[in-house]
Design brief:
Layout: H1 2-10, E1 26-29, H2 31-34, H3 40-51, E2 55-57, E3 60-62, E4 71-73, H4 106-115, E5 119-124, H5 137-153, E6 158-162, H6 170-179, E7 185-189, E8 218-220, H7 229-237, E9 254-256, H8 268-280, E10 285-287, H9 294-304, H10 307-314, E11 322-327, E12 334-342, E13 345-352, E14 362-364, E15 375-380, E16 385-391, E17 393-395, E18 404-410
Parallel strand pairs: 1-4, 1-10, 4-5, 5-6, 6-7, 7-8, 8-9
Antiparallel strand pairs: 2-3, 11-12, 12-13, 13-18, 14-17, 15-16, 15-18
């Protein structure tokens, strides 16, 4: 009876009523930094660094959190593998069993984050010791109900729902998390398998309402990212199916090509281009480098603290950004991406995918929504510099291999 009741509850509920995710979320998550070697102590150390006011932005001393990166998320391997019913990590009542050797108190950890002004995220349907052994519908329903209850009772503000275990019904997850009464940011990590516009599967929704009616706040458009240019560039391309008219990436449900590898790529230019790419497509900006490493933060600070780039990411003027041009066939060399940021301004990113050869490119301003005769002011986002005004076209300087140029064009 309980299972039938819960499924009836989830059936007609497509969207989530949490009122959050109306702009792309920003924050940090543990997997790219620590993998499975994560502990409460490490997480609290990260929170301290995210909230620490140490570096300047536009002459003001600020923290990473002050820039908007307020969501700090714990990923996989918090669980006590094999300690639950049927060799799972949930007990017979459906409650998640935490490895208290590494996480002595989840509530203390979320309190630590909240006391610093942060929001704290969790992780469910885990991949490490994934749970696929249950067949009783009533236990499956109880398992999900108690897991959702634990998210709220421990004080978490968000949860990443992975695709490894059998608990993939995001419509039911959304209903159960709504039931807690706590606004909880929901990340759909089904690697591009569960997306807006589907009429069947784990979360049917049109994805065309405002805000989106999908039962998650952002969705993975790709497989897992790796700390290489090739992986970053490939993941970026997976956002294009959601950039149509109407777009399926929109307030309430953002396309997400996975966590940022800024700070982990080969050099500064790659890190900067990667950040610009996630900004121009309105991806959530979730850092993954070791923020406790001061040298790394120093290296990437002017990238992740670029308030003009962040403003492009956070703006909504009816579209999340799109691929305008891609030269070079199946292995592109130069790509042009663009995003409207107001009724009279459009951001554009030129991305050079060639590893070493530099290119110049000419941007046809009519492809950005301007008329051929309009006078358009050009702003260099990377260098915080006005470049004057142009009409009709704009020619870039030479863009080195694995580098970028980031502009706003305003009429």
């Amino acid at each position: 009876m309980k299972a039938m009741l819960l499924m009836a509850l989830a059936g007609p509920v497509f969207g989530i009523d949490n009122g959050i995710g109306l702009t792309p979320p920003m924050g940090w998550r543990s997997w790219n930094c620590y993998g499975g070697d994560v502990t409460q102590k490490l997480m609290e150390g990260v929170m301290d660094k995210v909230a620490e006011k140490k570096r300047t932005v536009n002459g003001k001393v600020m923290s990473i959190a002050d820039l908007g990166y307020v969501n700090v998320g714990l990923d996989d391997n918090w669980q006590a593998c094999g300690k639950g019913v049927n060799n799972s990590f949930h007990d017979a009542l459906g409650n998640p069993i935490i490895n208290t050797a590494t996480f002595p108190s989840m509530k203390n950890m979320t309190d630590h984050g909240h006391n610093l002004g942060l929001k704290v995220g969790w992780y469910m349907n885990n991949c490490i010791c994934k749970e696929t052994q249950f067949t009783d519908p009533s236990y499956i329903a109880k398992h999900m109900q108690q897991s959702a209850k634990a998210v709220a009772e421990f004080g978490f503000d968000g949860v990443k729902l992975d695709g490894c275990g059998e608990f993939r019904n995001l419509t039911l997850w959304g209903a159960l998390l709504n039931q807690t009464g706590r606004p909880i940011m929901i990340e759909n990590c089904h690697w591009g398998q569960t997306v807006p516009g589907q009429s069947t599967g784990d979360a049917p929704c049109t994805g065309t309402t405002s805000p989106s009616n999908c039962p998650y706040n952002f969705f993975r458009s790709s497989g897992d990212i790796r700390s290489t240019w090739a992986s970053m560039f490939s993941n970026l391309q997976t956002t294009t199916p959601y950039q149509g008219n109407p777009p399926l990436a929109r307030p309430g449900t953002w396309a997400y090509p996975d966590m940022l590898e800024v700070g982990n790529l080969a050099n500064y230019n790659e890190d900067r281009a990667h950040f610009g790419a996630w900004c121009i497509v309105s991806s959530p900006l979730i850092l993954g480098y070791d923020v406790t490493n001061e040298a790394t933060t120093d290296k990437v600070w002017d990238i992740i603290s670029n308030t003009e780039a962040i403003a492009v990411n956070q703006a909504w003027a009816g579209h999340p950004g799109r691929l305008v041009q891609s030269a070079g066939g199946k292995d592109p060399t130069i790509q042009l991406w663009a995003k409207p940021v107001s009724s009279s301004s459009t951001a554009a990113l030129v991305l050079n995918n060639a590893p070493s050869k530099g290119y110049t490119t000419t941007i046809d301003l009519t492809e950005l929504g301007f008329s051929a005769t309009q006078t358009v002011a050009v702003r260099d986002i990377w260098n915080h510099k006005d470049l004057g005004s142009v009409t009709g076209t704009f020619k870039t300087d030479e863009v080195d291999g694995h580098d970028s140029r980031f502009y706003t064009f305003s009429a």
